Amino acid sequence: MINAMIKDKLVYSTDDSLITQNQETTDDTSFNIDQNIRLHLDRKKGGKITTVIKGFVQTDDRLKNLVKRIKRQCATGGSIKNNEIIIQGNKRDIVKTILEEEGFKPKISGG
Question: Is the pTM value of this prediction over 0.70?
Answer without folding.
Answer: no
